[in-house]
Each structure stands twice: as C-alpha cells, then as structure tokens.
Amino acid sequence: MRISILGGGIGSPAGNCHRAALSIDRRHEIDSGIFSRNRNKNIASLKEWLPTCSENFNNLEHLAKRKNIDCLSILTPTPEHFKNINDSKNFYKNIICEKALCSSLDDAFLIKDSIKTNNLFVIYNYTGYPMVRMARKLIKQNEIGNIKEIHAKMPQSSFIKKTSSISNEKNGPQAWRLIEDFIPNVDLDLGTHLHNIIEYVTGHDLVSVIGNQKLSSKFKVVETCHYLFKTNKDALGSMIYGKSNMKEDNGLYFEIVGEKGTISWKQIYPEDLEISNISGKKLLTRSNFSDSELTYYERMKPGHPAGFIEALANYYNSIDNFLSKGLEKDNVFGIESSLKGLIFFNAANESIKSKKWEYINY
Asked: How confident is the model at residue 296 (pLDDT cuts 50, 70, 90)?
C-alpha cells in the first residue's frame, strides 16, 4: 500500500508507532503527508518521516494530487476526525482512521451517511495482537463452551504521573482531552478498546448497560468508569478502566468465562493465553500452535514479540490483504464497529443520569 498521512507530527503519541508499524514489513510505503497545522512543526516532521522528500503540502487538496495513493491514514486527535474524514472523502477511496472514530454518536451517523462510496477502516490496535486473534478462534471452536461472563479492565496512571518524555503529554493530558462531550474522553480513549476487544473475541453484541463514573479532582473530567453489561447471548459482563491507578501504566486485561473453561489475556504478556478448565490451568504461547492463520503475523520466532508496534502493523497488513486479496474480512473494522461502540457508550452515559439499566438499540 502507498499511504499518505494526516497528523502524527513530532510530539504526537501515535506518530512514531504508526511510522514504525508501516515500516516493519516493508510492504507499505509512506509516500507523503501533512503532519501538523503548524508550518514549522510540519516541516520538521516531514524531515523525520520522509527525509528524502522536499515537497511541503499545504492542505488536503494539495496532498491529494499525489498519484497512485492507496489510502489516507488519519492520526489526528479524536475531535478532529469528523472534519478530517469529511474533508478527505472526495479525494480518497480508502481512509484509515485511529479510534475513536469521532466524539459523538450524532457525528458518527453523519459520517456513515456521507461515506457510502468510500472504504473507512478504524484501527483499535489491541485486536491486532496475534494471541487476541487466537483467543477469538478458540472461542469460535467451542474451547470454553457457551460464554457466561465477560470481564475487561484497562487501568492506567497518566492522570497522576508523567508519561513518556518524548510525548507532548509529558506535562499532563493534552488540552483537547480536557474538553468533554456527552461521551467522556476516557470512554473514547480506553472504553472503545475494551468494547472492540469484547465484541471481537466473543462474537457477542452488548445489549444493555448500567454504569458509574468518577471525576478527576485535578482535571475536572471523568477519570474512571465502571460499567456492567448484558449481551445478546445472555452473558453478563463488566468493564473497568481509568487513568488514575498508580499501579498500572497500561493494565489491559480480559477474561472470558465459559461453561467449559475460561480464557484470559494480559497485554503485558502478549504472547500468552491462559486457559483454565476442570483439568487445571494451562498457558498457551504462540509456540503451542502450528496454525496457518498465525503465520500472517510472525516476524520472529515465538517468544520474541514486537508487541504494540507488531499489533499495529497487523492492522495495516489486514487492511492491505482485504483491499488487494479480499482476505481477513473479520480482522478489519469500520463505521459499523465504531457506531456500535458509540451507541454503547451513549447508553452507558444515559445510565449515569437515569441510575437504571439502559437498553442498547443498534
């Protein structure tokens, strides 16, 4: 794929990850981009992303004049996605956008109505991990039987301690993260990951929800969310996540409880799946599988994960496989996935007000 980039300039938390992911397999070419609205920052970012390119693009219309571009990848902050997608839809058939798709459910429906002739792909990242995809396959193969419970957590510490020194978040949350819409930013940031993981791994739809939230005393925005939910196949579940847990930098974890056993996965041990059943516990790693589907994702022998970057690279490869060969349909996500997530969190926040279960109408 030949790709143009929008956003991801110097200081962007996402920029370096996407640049590395696109380079890891040498099957994608970063052709061009607009990396920042700030002219000086854009020029400096261009030298970092494309040191041999001397063309500085002023706007999307100028960028779109590049020939033979397969996709535009949007790496800007969430509040800018709505405008970015609408501005680029007439120039690019294929658009890739980081989660969350946009800040509100209304905007998501407007996007859906306006891009009927485009392919819009949404990247969540964690469902790109090989062993998360293997968990999905084992559940489909009835490894743990009918699912009874689903639990997912994502505690982080970014509201109470500094993040990476190279990120523009090093002195606290970026300014746009401190402006809340009806759906809080923590839902759009962390919650969308968990919703995507749960529906992808289990094959269930979330159909009702009740929740509670806590505000940050320092930043005056929602910092912690606790949600209970029910699925269309009578499973019960929970999501717990937030940004003020000193113990965890990124404690992403899920546990799927079935009638015959339980599958669990922790992001800090990405090569491992734990399966518990009546015979005891067993730890499965990539080396346990001689599975043709896993070979799509192997860049080094088992035990040597490239982790977060690898998962991100898998997203780009899945999109390329879908566009060029019609493969991996289950591993690419688009407007419907994002709409379902936003509908869920819209209902979750309605439940905060109503103090009762809210039913989810997809």
From this structure: low
